[in-house]
Amino acid sequence: MITPVILCGGAGSRLWPLSRERYPKQILALDGEESLLQATVRRARHVAPDARPVVVCNEEHRFLVAEQLRALGVQARIILEPEGRNTAPALLLAALLGEVPADAPMLVLPADHMVGDLEAFASAVSVAARAAAGGALVTFGVVPDSPHTGYGYIRRGEARGEAFAVDRFVEKPDAETASGYLEAGGYLWNSGMFLFPSAAYIREIEAHRPEMLDACRVAAKGAKTDLDFVRPDKTAFLKCPSDSIDYAVMEKTRDAVVVPLDSGWSDVGSWTALHEVLPSDAQGNTVVGDVLMADCEDSLLYSTSRLVAGVGLRGYAVIESPDAVLVLPLSASQDVKRIVEQLKAGDRSESHLHRQVFRPWGSYDSVDHGPRFQVKRLIVNPGAQLSLQMHNHRAEHWVVVQGTARITRDDEVFDLHENESTYIPLGAKHRIENPTDEPLHIIEVQSGAYLGEDDIVRFEDVYGRAQSGSDRT
Hints:
Blueprint: E1 3-8, H1 36-47, E2 54-58, H2 62-72, E3 77-81, H3 87-97, E4 105-110, E5 114-115, H4 118-133, E6 137-142, E7 153-160, E8 163-170, H5 175-184, E9 187-197, H6 198-208, H7 210-221, E10 224-226, E11 229-231, H8 234-237, H9 245-250, E12 256-261, E13 265-266, H10 271-277, E14 286-288, E15 291-294, E16 300-302, E17 308-311, E18 316-321, E19 324-329, H11 336-345, E20 356-359, E21 362-370, E22 373-380, E23 388-390, E24 394-402, E25 405-409, E26 412-416, E27 421-424, E28 430-433, E29 440-448, E30 457-460
Parallel strand pairs: 1-2, 1-4, 2-3, 3-11, 6-12, 14-16, 15-17, 16-18
Antiparallel strand pairs: 4-9, 5-13, 6-9, 7-8, 7-9, 8-12, 10-11, 18-19, 20-21, 21-22, 22-29, 23-30, 24-27, 24-29, 25-26, 25-28
């Protein structure tokens, strides 16, 4: 039985301001319906409905991933990378810790892709499974429809049954070279999706990158289970070299084959890519959210929190989020990273955080702030609770605007209902809990000399976070 292995790392900085380090593109519902991760899980279940998927993700995204899987009703084995080491070690952790039978094929899927035609995808997976059963390590090559310069290419060789030998992998080409590939035929976009038995992958790593296998085996042996997560030993894993599946295995093995995939695939790697995959009107415009347009063509207008209006735009993208707006020609989509680099150089939070910050218990949105005060809106998920904590520098006022809150304040425990409030003095131990099956909304007014998120002394926490530091981590 096929075991889906979903690789859920990466930051997607070319989709800033929607995608950020702490809330990357695979977590976003870019089409307004479901996240790319959720769509990937559904796609995996389409070809392996009875399999328990394995998800490999970053430590800082663990609760976001778990919540999105819970919303789908999917039980998955979630493996946490202590630190990113590229795709080859991530997949090796999945092979060693994912409880995958040695002879069972692993379907490796990045969590941040879109696939339009599920039946074409399922057909390609069936071809790949038959090739893998014969000993091949399969990669999927997307049939190109344009001379794209943002993808690597695979040149296919002679036919091997229903698949093709891999003649060579090609780095991202310039425009002229890409046009030549399209004209010549026989070149496919490198999708980053694979299918092979876990034992075959481990064998190839042992042959070509034994030091990687040694480090991951020690990390796997020292792994611990924490809530829904499997944590490999950090010290051992940090000794693992960084490498991609392509470089570590697929370019070295003699058993690589490629299966062509023609399924409306996109890696959604830029605003241009999103414009291409989402529906457009007769003038080539794509709109998401509250948008008004006049005399615009071939443009993308994306709103998340307020009205966005465009007049006379030709080939532009306007992307609105609550704390940042991006305007650029779609032809310059690859250059968004330059803005992110400036944000990081200036140590600005917009590089990694949204105004609404998601946490294991729910989220908070910084509504307003000034000297000695800050106003936040907290949303606490059904059944969730914040840590039992205290602050050394601030007091808090809480007003329940929706739902019921169970409040702990020193030795008191009491419920607050809609339009009721309470005060948490500086130094008091306190906790918010949502005892209901509906979301809880609270307006929090903080006042004090210091309002930083690190002013927390934590006494108890059901999510296993550190005893001091930010409750918003």
